[in-house]
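I hope you will forgive my troubling you with a question about protein structure. I am sending you one protein, given as its amino acid sequence and as whole-number tokens for its backbone shapes. Thank you for your consideration; the sequence and its tokens are set out here:
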Amino acid sequence: MTLSRRSALLMLAALPAACASPDPVLYVLAPVPGSVRTGAPRAIQLRTVGVPHYLERSQIVRSSEGYRMDVLSNDWWGEPVGAMIGRILAQDLAQRLTGSSVYADNGAISTPPDATVETDLQRFDLDRDGALRLAAQIAVDGRQAVADSFTVAVRPTDATTRSLVAAMSVATGQLADRMAAMLTETPPPRRSRSP
């Protein structure tokens, strides 16, 4: 076998390895501390977070602006998005609500709750100005049933995926701040009915 033919065969054998994409880089959200509040119900059940289908993928969605999705092909979530957001929200809420036990409804703990929190995430990606936008609806059933729409924008410090995930963690912490406020706000006094 000639040297050039042998070199050609070695190059063909190495071609599949050269075309293989590198292993994806995995990311997870992190808890972000917030202001501690008192007066929340003792046992709080965090229901499974509703996540839009466009976010339910391994790859991190960078943006959904301009009628197209910008997906980071080699930057992936380390766990399913809905489960991860629920896990971080439970940790964030537990830190903010001292004296309360916060647990997820899909976890191993099952106890009758004094309050439940439901969250429907509507957006969790970059807007056209480069700010991370989180939009959600929250429903709390505790001392009183209350619902709220919540929107926050957090600007990543740079264009890296790490900075995007850090901004997402901050926005999730701010969502937990709003939930904590809803769980500790004093309900308005009931009007007495005239006889």
